[in-house]
Amino acid sequence: MDVKQLRKAAWIIFFVTPGLMIVGVFILLPLFMSLYNSLFSWNQLLPVEFVGLENFSRLFTKYPYQQRFLNALQNNLIWFLSTMILQNSVGLLFGYLMSRSIPGYQAFKRIFFIPVLFSIIAVGFLWGLYLKPSGLVNNFLGLIGLESLQHAWLGEERFATMAIIMVNIWRWVGFPSLVFLAAIDNVPTECLEAAHLDGVGEWKLFWKIVFPLIIPSITIITVLTVIGSLNVFEQIYTMTGLDGGPNYSTDTIGTLFYRTAFGSVDAGSPEIGIGSAIGVVIYILTFLISLISIRFSRSREVQL
C-alpha cells in the first residue's frame, strides 16, 4: 500500500471512528449490558446469581409480568397503527399539497413544523392541563354547544390512549410532511409533465407515478415510526404517570420497563433482571419490525 492509499485510509478512519464510537457507547454497549443483566437475579442493585433465561420466562408466563407486558405491547401496537395510518397519511397529504405550491405553502411549512420544536415534556404537561375535565378542550366543546362530547379524556380508559396519541400526532405531523415534501420535489419533472400531456388525472398521477418514486422516504418514516412507537415513554409519563393510568390503559413497554427496573410492577422493589429482559425484547422487536418494513418497502421501490 503506497503513501496515497495510506493517507486515504487514515482519513476514512478519522471520519468513521467518532460515529462508530457513538454507536458503540450509546447503542451496542447498552444492548449487551441489558442482555447481561437479564441473565441474573438481583438483590436490589446487586446481581446475586446466574439464572439464564428465567427472567424472560417470568416475563412471558408469570403473573403479573405477563399480563402487564401483553397489555403494554397491545398499547404499543395501537400507537404504531394509529401513527402510521393517521400521522403519516396526513403528513403525506400535507406534503403533496405543499408540493403543488398552494397559496401560502411557505407559511404552512413553518406552521406544521413548529410543534416538532417544542419540548415533549412541555407538550405533555400543557396538553395534560388542556384535557382535564375543566380544561381547554371541554370548555371549547361547551362553548360551541357540544357538551355531549365532553369527557375526562385522560381519566376514562376508552379515551385515554387515543387522546395521548392524538397529541403525539399533533406534535409530530410536521416532520413526515417535510420529508414527503422533499421527496416529492425530487420527483423528475419530466415524468410529471409527460403524465399531464397524456391527460393523467391528479389522483392517478400521485398513485401511479409520485407514490412509487417516494417509497424510500416512506421506508425511512416507517422505520422511525416503529422506533418511536416502541419507545414511547415521556409523553405517557407527563400525561398519565408511570402507572399508565387509568388502570394501565395507557401503559407501554417503555413505562413498564422503567417501573419494573426501578420500582417493580406490583411489589415496589426493583426487578432489574426482568426490566433488562424487557429492554432486550424492545431491541429485538425494533430490529425485526424495522427489518421487515425495509424489506417490504424496498421490494416496491421504482428505479428510474
Describe the structure concisely.
By secondary structure, this protein is mainly α. Helix content is 71%, strand content 3%.
How much strand content do the residues show? under 5%
CATH topology: MetI-like fold
Tell me how many strands there are.
2
Q: Count structural domains.
A: 1
CATH class: Mainly Alpha
Structure overview:
This protein is an all-alpha fold and 304 residues long. The protein has one domain (62-298): MetI-like fold, CATH 1.10.3720. The protein has helices spanning 3-37, 54-61, 65-99, 105-113, 120-130, 136-143, 157-172, 174-185, 189-197, 202-213, 215-230, 234-240, 253-263, 272-298, and strands at residues 40-43, 46-50. It has a two-stranded antiparallel ribbon. A hairpin with a 2-residue loop joins strand 1 (40-43) and strand 2. The longest helix has 35 residues, at 3-37. It is globular, with a radius of gyration of 24 Å. It starts with a helix and ends in a 6-residue tail after the last helix. The model has no long low-confidence stretch (mean pLDDT 88).
